[in-house]
Amino acid sequence: MKSTYALIDCNNFFASCERLFRPELENQPVVVLSSNDGCAVSRSQEAKDLGIPMGAPHFKYRDFFKRHGVVAFSANFELYGDISERITNLLASITPRIEVYSVDESFLDLSELNIADYQAWGSVVRASVLKNVGVPVSIGISTSKTLAKLASDRAKKTPTLHGVLGLTVQGTTTDHYLNQVPVHDIWGVGWKLTPKLKAEGIHTALDLRQMNLRQAQQLMGIHGRQLHDELNGVTCLPLQHSHKPQQMIMRGRQFGEDTREFYVIESAIASLSARAAAALRREHQLARRAVVVLRTNRHRPGYQQASESVRFYTPTADTGAITSQLIRMLASNFNGRLEYHRADVLLCDFVPESGMQTDLFGTVNLPESDRSSARMRAVDTVNLRHGKGTLKFAAETLSQSWQPRKRLNSPRYTSAWDELPEVRLL
Ligand SMILES: [Mg+2]
Predict the structure, then answer these.
(1) Rounded to the nearest whole angstrom, what is the distance from the C-alpha of residue 9 to the centroid of ligand 1?
(2) Which CATH superfamily groups domain 177-241?
(3) What's the CA-to-centroid distance between 52 and ligand 1, angstroms?
(4) Of all residues in the chain, what percent carry a pLDDT higher than 70?
């Protein structure tokens, strides 16, 4: 039996999330800016139609935004993450065979669902996401993931399709759409392959699909063979629906303003390691190593970076243990003459939480480790119930000046009690 996949892709995801609680912005140009309000990372269709490119620097476009009534937001990743999870949960209720590909894209394997009319199915799913979460999506359906992705992209860019496109393997409609897609827009064709393909006269997805299989393999190796097969509806990339355990966890921030003050950096490191450690606990892992990296501004002369690494004999996910060790290491080698611009905390060399009992050499202090995990469980429970950051380590509150500048931020409508949207009944 042939496989069938759907790709569900949220349209202009961050901008759509911002509109959810500001319905008056429907049909208005909306732009979401990267951290420190640097450049545009998401644009509503109206903003795209005004010619605002991806990555447009905010300082250059400020007047343009004003003239054209473009509403700009600082990125509110907490909101986007929460909305993304709601969409994933809804899709996972259709079938457990789901691959969450990115924050705004998921593949579903429909092979075992007995769907008679894919176009109708897609329309129902689209309407359901719109009604239950409020985000418009584009849905592509076909017999390989590459074709499904290509179909969802066509569905997004072709208004008459109303957000859904099913592509059969053969047929003039399929050829018609494949002919519209330049090779560099095909999933898996990067900037490296594009010039190679163009030199061979392969300009569109249709050209690539009709190319001789042997020639595709000669030009691009095994990857070319896979691409060719996938475009011909033969599945080479199965669904990756099992959650892969992470190999490392990193949390970093570019500071709102550069700093030489140790207490400001201490506060940043404490917050970043609290976030990294919480992510580690969600993965049910313990770290044997933590690394902290401080950098000056790389666009200024005299760029420098300093890093310190700590090894834990008792693997840990304890925010206090990780933070205090990193700060101690940093303090002993701190150069107060440099203006620091960015900090990153990295946790790695993981062991599963459940593996702690099997300590061969007796280096692990089990009673202390149990107390630590009970303490962290209590912190996580409180923060889950009452909102992130309700309970935190004192070092996190030493300074706020390192926090990225967010002058245009929207409330965390769905994940912070005191930022819930208010409804007035008159
Ligand atoms: Mg998208």
Answers:
(1) 5
(2) 5' to 3' exonuclease, C-terminal subdomain (1.10.150.20)
(3) 17
(4) 96
